[in-house]
Here is the input.
Amino acid sequence: MIAQLGPYGVFVLAGIVGLCVGSFLNVVIHRVPKMLERGWAAQCAELRGETPAVLPAYNLVVPRSACPSCGHGITALENVPLLSWLVLKGKCSSCGAAIAGRYPAVELLGAALAVAAIWRFGPTWQAVAACVLLWTLVALTFIDFDSQLLPDNLTLPLLWAGLLANMFDLFVPLKTAVIGAVAGYLSLWVVYWLFKLIRGKEGMGYGDFKLLAALGAWLGWQMLPLIVLLSSVVGATIGIMLIVFRGREHGVPLAFGPYLAIAGAIALFFGQALTKMYFV
Here is the structure.
């Protein structure tokens, strides 16, 4: 059926699906940290011997999305990816409050990555798996930028999904994927403890270990040096830009997860070519 769409039709379909997934990613990015905070508050109350407060349900499905300024519930027509934002001119239909441009940006990013995956891997299961990886990396990137959290309920399923995908040799042999997962975790774990012993403070979080382990599970251990190198270059570049253009203080810690995620995406598309260029 997909073959009947033709090459351009496949790209259009991928873009539409990517827009819809991007819309859902906005929900994930906004709600997952809040869901974690609610869970931690309940656990703390239990440890204190208190009865956790009974709060309204809050997850990725309920409550319905609403304007943060006036509480206006967003209707189905107001929730069409990208188009609704353009029609509403980036404003709430009820109170006129501005709707952040990041929402359509994430939707466009989801679409662009889906199209890029089809371009790179063709209309195959490999492309579908690549989309799962890329979309999850988008969610982790924005969550880490916002809250400096890399939630286990995203990083760990991503790791297992990588191993599952490579049971069918979609990207690398399963043995290479397993070694990649182990090496990815242990490499940053060692760096973490060396930094802590030398400097007496933490240099990164455990979520970074799990994210690099997940990337190793997807792309294999051979890609880990390239991913670490690329993440350092990307991190240094973005860090300098933030200091120069936004006046960010040098001492303010930067989340490392987004740079790992960006490096992982680059390695997915261009890793083999970059590795060949380096060793030739």
Summary: The chain has a mean pLDDT of 90. The two ends are 42 Å apart (CA to CA). The CA atoms of residues 74 and 270 lie 40 Å apart. The first helix runs from residue 6 to 47.
